[in-house]
Amino acid sequence: ALLLICVSLCTVSAARAEDGYRLWLRNAPVADAAQQRPGQVVLVGIESPTMILARDELSRGLAELFPGGATGRTTPILLRRVIGPQMREGAFTIASMDQGVAITANSDTGLLYGAFALLRELGQGKALASIRLDEAPAYDLRMLNHWDNPDGHVERGYAGRSIFDWWHLPGHVDARMTDYARANASIGINGVVINNVNARATMLEPRYIAKAKALADTFRPWGIRLYLSARFSAPRDIGGLKTADPLDPAVRAWWKAKADELYSAIPDFGGFLVKANSEGQPGPQDYGRSHANGANMLAEAIGNRGVVIWRAFVYAAENDEDRAKQAFTEFQPLDGKFASNVVVQVKNGPIDFQPREPFHPLFGAMPKTRLSLELQITKEYLGFASHLAFLAPLFEEVLDADTGRSGTVADTVSVIAGVANTGSDRNWTGSHFDQANWYAFGRLAWNPKLPSKQIASEWAAQTFSRDPAFLNAVVPMMLASRDAVVDYMTPLGLAHVMGTGHHYGPAPWVADLDRPEWNPVYYHRADRDGIGFDRTATGSDALAQYAPAVAKRLLADEALLLWFCHVPWDHRLTNGSTLWEELPRRYDRGVATVARMGTTWAGLAPYVDQQRHRAVADFLTIQADEARWWRDASLAYWSSVSGRALPAGHEAPA
Ligand code: GCW
After folding, report:
1. 352 Cβ inside 6 Å of ligand 1
2. Does pTM top 0.80 for this prediction?
3. How many CB atoms lie within 10 A of CB 577?
4. Does domain 28-135 have CATH number 3.30.379.10?
């Protein structure tokens, strides 16, 4: 009877696993029975909660990967905590030794990451004896930024309501919080900001601090520190003060007391993330003070216990300077003025998470300031969760971009942040393939040099199937997907032509919004003569914010043509075509790629359980329809402003 119960439980959990809840941590059984099997997991060193998690995670994962149990020749796995060479927190090695396979680290989290790394390698079908790793994270802080509101709504979230159950916290911490922490730990994420940068001061009230503490206690053993977005006007909103002026002694004292209160509840509290004087949020400029004044005041309150992450995403309605220039104009002169525990967080590009943007000119331009790179994992401008777009190539493009000043973007930053795409949907991210973007973010924050192809392959093998025939088809499909979106939404450097407010679907014609820089026409500037935003010296000269050699390279990059130049419709491209000829080709190419993705996926049914296969196929059909919508609506509009006939095969719809 016991056996029967076990069998039926196992069946239930196997069926459950296919709704995507288990993410890339499925540990599907390894078929090759001839493989050397891992045996018992042995802890060497003082046991801590994190080490125990590492051991249990490994034991459980191995039992799932090798369900036959430890029959035949087995090799013990040693988790060795050593006192030893100076390694970056989280570093580990994996190597075969006489006594077995050893995961060695000089920190608890190193062992935890090592345990997950071993499972990742085995999960791809690698033989135990062949696994040799020597890894250290490239950055100390690898964090998710949640844009989750206390009422459960997630700004730019496409995966349901927030995963944070404020209503029942702190009395009840949902088991999902452990699953969430575990997923993050498995890819090396070690910091989470749990509330929206458009913050409510509520989050800093004692009742919410108690809730945050319950989450922090849950995340801690997984090596994750909790951070809060702080509303700059909190001393007024909830503190009973008349001002939030950062130079006012009462305001400074209020923040210091608030920080102390946080640290007494959460001893390893990470610090504050702040969006100030941006899109209507309060900030130091309300009192005639600078961003540095504001950030440094909070930094003083936090002291050496944590950091203040201050966002550089600023642009103002009153300012008629090119929006792409404003962050640099405001922040670059402040280089050297920020306290040492302030990190300035810069979005990957100068506008706003578009399908393709040049890298932000602040990277490399603030050598005396710690910078964080902010990436958006949730796909606000890339078709939400409905469209399949694997973002590793986008992330890789920005990380690898040469700033011409002090190396690549990856070289110039010390923190990597990603705007989370999680929600309470069963599959966490709203679509199965969006799990890959969470995964890719974590892997690149750990090692910015990992190629997109490897990340895609690792993820797909663990999430769906490690069969080479499956991987050989799905990996190229994933790698081509982001370029497809660029082609059918914003080819040749176009940007911000999405529907008003929600940013879904085409709306390049919108011209009547209150603020000029919210209108798509502000960005594409199409008229009878041509199209594109002149950001050269004859226009806004945003180009001059880059190092001269880089500016030259960007100007020559046709993928960014209309980002930097306003060109006539008859402008000749390097392939000999005119812009008017090339545009429809790009849209067509995007549409064709999506159609191909649908065919590829249809052929992969034998490798994927029915439930997830069907869900992905449905979404690809939606995407195929919407790629055509994007193409047809965009071309019809460009035709109407240019006064040129639509190319053959692109008749205006009836
Ligand atoms: O991309 C824009 C989004 C806003 C967001 C803002 C920001 C959180 O449309 O929803 O607000 O950027 O990054 O602050």
Report:
1. yes
2. yes
3. 13
4. yes
